[in-house]
Structure formats: C-alpha cells, structure tokens
Design brief:
The chain is of the alpha/beta class and 446 residues long. 37% of the residues lie in helices and 23% in strands. The structure holds zinc ion. The site of zinc ion (ZN) has 6 residues, from loops.
Length: 446
C-alpha cells in the first residue's frame, strides 16, 4: 500500500538522530521524500499541500531498531519446549518438530507473524537464518520490513535439503529464485562448526563472496560446543573459522559467549562483527558474551533476539535492557556497558554488522527513511531527563507508535497497516492446531 502523499513530514517531538546526539528544534520537522530522508530536524515552514503531516508532540523520533539475528519462522514453535539445555532442546524437541512441519507455508506464516511482532516493537531491519528462505523474503517484503535473509546450511538432513550432499544445489536455487525487492537481500547461514564441516564452511564462504553477501554462523554459544570442537579439531570454534580463512568483515559471528582474550584479539583484527543475544543466552543458560571486552577492542557488536522459540519474544527494547544488566552482573562493574553503547549496538552498530550502515542506522539527510516514533506520554517514561537512558532502561516495544520503513508507513498509531493481521492470525492458529494435534497437545486454538 503506497503512501498517497509525495512526502511525509514529521513535525515537533524530540529527535534522536543517532545515539550520540539529541537535537530539538522547537517546532522542527523531519522530511521524507520517496524512500529517503531529505531533512532531519530543520525549521518548520508551512508544509506543501501534497504532504502527509505526522504530529510527534510528546514523542521521540529515532532510527528504526536492528534485530541482527533471529529465526523468524520459529514463532510457530514458540512455547513448545522451554527450560532445557540447548542440545536437548534442539535434538529432542526442535529438530523433530521441524522435520515434520517446516515447509514453505510454515516459513511464510511464521516469518509474517514475527515480522508483524517486530514492526510493532520498532524493529525496521532484521537478519534471519532458516530454511525455505525465499518464502521468508516474500513475508518480510509483504509486511514491509528491511531484511537480510540467510539460507540455512547443515551437514545433516534439513527440511528443504533432505540430502545434505546436495546443499550446493539448494543454494544455487535459493540465489536464482530470490525475489526482487528493495527491502531484502540474500545471504547464507552455516548453522555452526558442530553441524557444518570445514569444507562446507569454505564452499559457503566462497558462494557468499561470489554473490557479494554475508555468511553467518553460531559461534561459541555453549561450553559443550567449545569442548566438541576442541576434541574434533584441537582448537576453539573461533580459531577454527579463523584458520579456515573465512573470518572477515563479511562473516557474522552469532553469540561468541565463550572467548579467550586471544580470541577477542583475533576477532578485532579480522573486522568481523558479533551479534549478542542476551535473553536467548540466559534462557538456555549458555553464558554471557563479553561485550565490554569486544567493544573495547573495536569489534562491532550488534544485538539480536535469536529465534522466538528460544527467547520467546522479539522485543529489542527488552534485549537492550538485558544486555546492559547482564554485562554489569557478569563483570561486577556498573560501568561495563552504558546505555549509549547499548543503543548504538541496536542501531548504527547493528547496521554496521549487516553491512548497511551507509544507508540505515541513523537519521541523516540522504539516508534511507527507516525511523520509529516512540510515545513518551507514558507513566514509565515520565519525566524525560535523558532519552537514551529511557530507551534502554524503561521503554518497551509497546511504546512504539509509528514505524516507517523505506519511506512507507508500516505501523500507524500502534497498528500494522501493511497487511490484514486478523487474517494472518487465523491462518497461524489453524497451522498451530495441526502441530498441536500431531504432538497430542490439548489446545483451545482453532
Ligand atoms: Zn540462532
């Protein structure tokens, strides 16, 4: 649904152009022309007749949030199994359910549902890794979110590649069929060094490089993984990918919970980014990513929710708060990670890790128009001394009033306007009823 005006003008309100600045021009304006920001916080004159004007009094205008790691379609498995260690959770619950139910419809519905949840919570860009990812790209574009869509690769049978010897063919098909959209770009995702061998990593990296895109992997998430890789290869997971020659700016390390100081130095030298998923790491009792040490060494650290089956929601405001609190707790240092650093991780550094910081992650004339409007007129956000503190320590996803992605209004007054949510929710409930019946779960879902 295109906007009917030539331009959108946001008037009044506090403007947080990036985490390091908070500008307020009394009666100022931010102008969106097409899919770009053309003015940020300039003096308001009478708006042209063809403009849509959004009044942001008592609101904060800021860059859209970046969720740098999720498995969006897994919202259809949310709440199916909790309170287990990662290996038991994956092998006994998630992998068997996926083998039975994950197909194109599952991925389209689950990703659509998650994209709506993310949009309502102020996420304008997400990085996804799963199966049948052409369908995830369709879902993201339909809801209207920007997304890096990474096709999953495993050395064991997976829902869209039952014969792992043929994963190469699946990847060719993925790139060939990837739908055209200004919002989505394809990428690859090797699950982890324990489920992808050295040759798989090498070939995947070459294919990603040939297509000018990113390769993601879960790296050093649990102690168990570190021990397994040490016994198989005589090194840590990070040393392993480094020795394979694939650790560079276009390689994204998800988790990095268990790292020695030497590995932190390797990471910083490589220029590779890290995605910190504090709530998933806490829920699976994996440990804490050493964010303070990584940031100190100059590594870009983004924030991710991880999948909705291991979190179990997709709220980056919660993740920001958890990231700050977790860093303080594990270091016994209240200065370990301050609110401003955390907000950078969820905006400009998130964009950096995904290679998108030239176009998103801050509000600047000439950048793409991905922004959110937060309603500050709430008891838990009153009064405002420092908006950055509020965003990290007080705000919730439900405080987001409006969301604009690529110049298109996706959320208006707290409601999604790009798709029919009630129709989507009823399709999701029908699909979930099939999963529940199959597993013998009594449910009220219809
Ligand atoms: Zn993950």
């Amino acid at each position: 649904m295109p906007n009917h005006s030539d331009q959108i003008i946001l008037v009044n309100g506090l403007i947080l152009a990036d985490p390091d600045s908070c500008l307020v021009v009394p009666h100022g304006k931010t102008v969106i022309k097409g899919n770009m920001l053309s003015e940020v916080n300039s003096q308001l004159e009478a708006p042209p007749f063809s403009s849509e004007v959004i009044d942001c009094s008592n609101c904060l205008i800021m860059p859209g949030l970046v969720n740098a790691h999720t498995h969006a379609a897994m919202s259809l498995l949310r709440g199916l199994a909790d309170d287990l260690p990662l290996d038991k959770w994956l092998n006994d619950c998630i992998f068997p359910s996926e083998a039975k139910h994950v197909g194109p419809e599952f991925v389209f519905l689950g990703t659509s549902l998650s994209a709506v949840e993310m949009a309502l919570g102020g996420i304008t860009t997400f990085a996804d890794g799963y199966f049948f990812m052409e369908k995830a790209a369709d879902a993201a574009a339909e809801v209207g979110l920007r997304a890096v869509i990474a096709q999953g690769i495993l050395d064991v049978p997976s829902p869209d590649c039952p014969d792992p010897a043929k994963w190469n063919k699946r990847i060719e098909e993925f790139f060939a069929r990837f739908p055209e959209s200004p919002l989505t770009r394809p990428a690859l995702f090797c699950h982890s060094p324990y489920l992808c061998g050295p040759e798989t990593f090498r070939i995947a990296k070459k294919l990603a490089a040939d297509h000018g895109t990113l390769l993601f992997a879960h790296i050093s998430e649990t102690r168990c993984e570190v021990e397994e890789i040490a016994s198989r290869f005589g090194k840590t997971p990070l040393e392993h990918v480094h020795d394979l020659g694939i650790l560079d700016r276009n390689f994204v390390n998800v988790h990095c919970v268990h790292l020695s100081d030497h590995e932190k130095d390797i990471l910083a030298d490589s220029g590779a980014g890290v995605v910190h998923c504090p709530e998933s790491n806490m829920k699976l009792a994996s440990g804490a990513c050493p964010t303070r040490d990584l940031l100190k060494r100059g590594t870009s650290v983004a924030i991710g929710t991880d999948g909705p089956a291991s979190n179990n929601n997709l709220d980056i405001f919660e993740e920001m708060r958890s990231a700050a609190l977790m860093a303080k707790l594990v270091t016994s240092d209240p200065e370990a990670l301050d609110a401003r650093s955390v907000l950078r991780m969820a905006t400009i550094q998130g964009a950096q890790v995904l290679g998108l910081d030239h176009s998103i992650g801050s509000l600047k004339a000439g950048k793409l128009a991905d922004l959110i409007v937060i309603d500050l007129d709430r008891p838990h956000l009153t009064p405002v001394f420092d908006p950055v503190s509020h965003l990290v320590y007080c705000a919730r996803g439900s405080d987001v009033r409006d969301v604009i992605v690529n110049g298109r209004i996706v959320v208006r007054d707290g409601s999604i306007i790009t798709i029919d949510y009630s129709e989507l929710a009823s399709q999701v409930r029908s699909f979930a009823a099939k999963i529940a019946a199959d597993l013998g779960i009594r449910t009220e879902l219809k």
